[in-house]
Amino acid sequence: MKLHMAVVTAMAVSLGGLGWLSRSWEPGESGLAPRDLALLEMFQVLGEPNPFASQERRDPPKPPPHSGWTSPLRSSCRVNDAVESRRLRSLLAALPDQATRVPIHPSNYGDRFRVDAFGNPVNPTPKLVVLHETVYGIQSAINTFMTEHPNDDDQVSYHALISLDGELVELLDPVKRAFGAGNSAFDGRWVITNPRVRGSVNNFALHVSLETPLDGEDDGPHHSGYSPQQYDALAVLLASWMKRFNIPFENITTHRVVDLGGERADPRSFDWKALQVRLENIGMLCRQSV
Fold it and tell me: CA spacing 20 to 30 A to 150: which of 22, 94, 226, 256?
C-alpha cells in the first residue's frame, strides 16, 4: 500500500542521522573508554535532563519478576543464498533514499532522558528493538500519531511502520523517545522517568510496527501473518539500527515480551525463521560483524 504522494510531500521531514552512535556505556560500568566519553558528550545536546529527577540520588525500584527472554534468533556467519544476500544488501544501501518520512505530533513523543526520576544517570543510547503490529491499517496508525493527545494515557508512537507491501514509513528520529510501550521491562531493566508511574523500556528502545493483515483486525490470537516484503523491509531496517547503535540480535524482542501488564500479544503470528534467514544473508547474525 503506497501512501498518497501529495500527503507524503506535504509532510516529509528530514530525520537526522546518528552514524556516530556506534557504542554505548552502562551506568556503574568502570573504566569508560575515551570513545564512550565522547559519545556521552555528544549526547548531552540530544538527551534531556529529567524534570522529575530528585535532587538527592536514590536507588530506583527494580522491575517486578517477569518471564525471561531467550531470543529465537541464532548466531550464524553463513550466507544461505548469495543472490538473496546481494538483493538485501542493495535494499539496505538504498534505505536512506527509499523510506517515506512522515512527521507526527510532538505530544506523542519526547526526548530521551539522561537522568532517571531518582537522580541516577541513565544511558539514552538505543540498545533494544521492540517489534509491534498495528492491528488496524497503517493509515489509521499514522492518523493516530499525527493527532494531538494532551492526555498522557492517549500518547503513543513508534519510530517506524512497515506496510503490507513492504513500504517503510519513518515517523521519528531514533534519537527521540517513542511512546511504544507502557509499563515494561527487558532483561531486568527499565527506566523510571516519572516517580508517579512505573518504569518502561522506552528510554533505551526503538519501536517498529508491522501493518496487520485484514484477517487480523481483531483480538484473536493469530492471523495469516506478514508478507515477504514486510520481512525484507524489517530485516533491512533492523540491520541499519543494529549497525548504527551496536545492538546485539538478542535484543530484538516483542511487545508481548516486554509488557508487564500481560495485556499485549503483538506481533501475533510472527515468523522468526523468516527474519533469521534474512539477517543471516545480510550478515547481521555473525558475532564478528556486530
Answer: 256
pLDDT in tens, 67-123: 789 999 999 998 989 999 999 999 999 999 999 999 999 999 999 999 999 999 999
- The pTM score is 0.83
CB 260 within 8 A of CB 213: no
Quickly tell me which residue has 513492504 as its cell: 166
User: Which residues contact residue 50 at a Cβ distance below 8 angstroms, ignoring those fewer than 6 apart?
Assistant: 113, 114, 115, 116, 117, 193
Cβ pair 237, 168 in contact under 8 A: yes
The rounded distance, in Å, linking the Cα atoms of 51 and 214 is 42
Q: What is the pLDDT of residues 96-112, one digit of tens each?
A: 999 999 999 999 999 99
Yes or no: say if 122 and 113 are a contact pair by the CB < 8 Å rule.
yes
* AA letter at 253: T
Torsion angle of the four alpha carbons 86, 169, 277, 81, in this order, in degrees rounded to the nearest 10 = -20
